[in-house]
Amino acid sequence: MNASVREQFPILDQEVNGHPLVYLDSAATSQKPRAVLDAVRRYYEWDNSNVHRGVHTLGSRATDAYEGAREKVAKFIGAKHSEEIIFTRGTTTALNLVADSYGNANLKEGDEIVITPIEHHSNLIPWQQLAKRTGAALKYIEPNPDGTIDVEAAGKAITDSTKIVAIAYVSNVMGVIHPVKEIAALAHKHGAIIVVDGAQSTPHMKVDVQDLDCDFYALSGHKMCGPTGVGALYGKKALLEKMEPTEFGGEMIDEVGLYESTWKDLPYRFEGGTPIIAGAVGLGAAIDFLSELGMDNIAEHEHRLAMYAMRRINEIDGLKVFGPQERKVGIVTFNLDDVHPHDVATVLDSYGVAIRAGHHCCQPLMRWLNVSSTARASFYLYNNEQDIDRLIDALIQTKEYFGDAT
After folding, report:
1. Which domains does the chain have, with CATH numbers?
2. What is the pLDDT of residues 314-335, one digit of tens each?
3. Residue 320: phi, psi to the nearest 5?
4. Which among 25, 65, 171, 397 has most CB atoms closer than 10 A?
């Protein structure tokens, strides 16, 4: 990525605490390019109307933009049909929809749900609750010592009693890329479905849901240069057609009587009420932006930054990095000896460097790592080696500051 890409993100052109901003928290939320900001503003200024209802010009333009965004999402992740894409508020809502609709209808006592202990809470708690509702057992794939998940370990956890396997394509803490395609084949061999949390994979690498052969795939727009409050659920058409909606009201109905109602065809039965129109328009613009840059180019850029960051971080004594150094996206998670991650993040912020500190919505993983929290620097297409150098310089200053204090 060159300087012209960075220049398309106006928020980066500012100072924080007297220093040029270095934003290294894209795993939490990415920044937005002008193309996305302009698309959302243009919709509200010129096309603002409800969709699928009015026959007037604004309504038609809004509907075309909304459905056009659905087609862009489908193409971007390799879905076979646009009706396999359901707009949601994000990954969390999408995963809960699967647990509440598919899970409630298909699981019973004695069945198994297989996940990993390194999942984001959004891909753990819905399955905990489903297990409680249905009497199904919750089982965990044992990670390797470096935090990776392999097919052999998955094979020990998945049995003929397994009905759902749920796993993140990429860990939001360690950036590890999991062998989802191979685990999907294993799940299907045992008659189970696989649900993939794509929050951290979709922004950073090329995704093909047909090649993965996953049954459901969830993503969030705000992590891939799109607006907050919008995301999507992909589901295989044959599965979605058998599922019942979990929200009821306007727009998702076919016929309504006093005592009975019927639902629209896919995908509208799952999109009750006024949908996230502006968000979808912005997500469509983000997909255009990412597609023009090329996902393979983005992945290569991030991998180079991650490797550079690992080399520089390893120069600092007393700093521990969690997770493997290879097969990962642009995330580096670490702790500085005897300094709480929140203190590290606070000092870094005083130098204009924004990172994340805490348990990252992964408390079971923190316990598995035997820590309460960690610091996390995450890189995206607008970052460069100079940002990494600023991070390293600030970490050295942080270490010296707390060393002097001690």
Report:
1. 3-24+294-405 (3.90.1150.10), 36-292 (3.40.640.10)
2. 899 999 999 887 778 899 999 9
3. -105, 130
4. 171
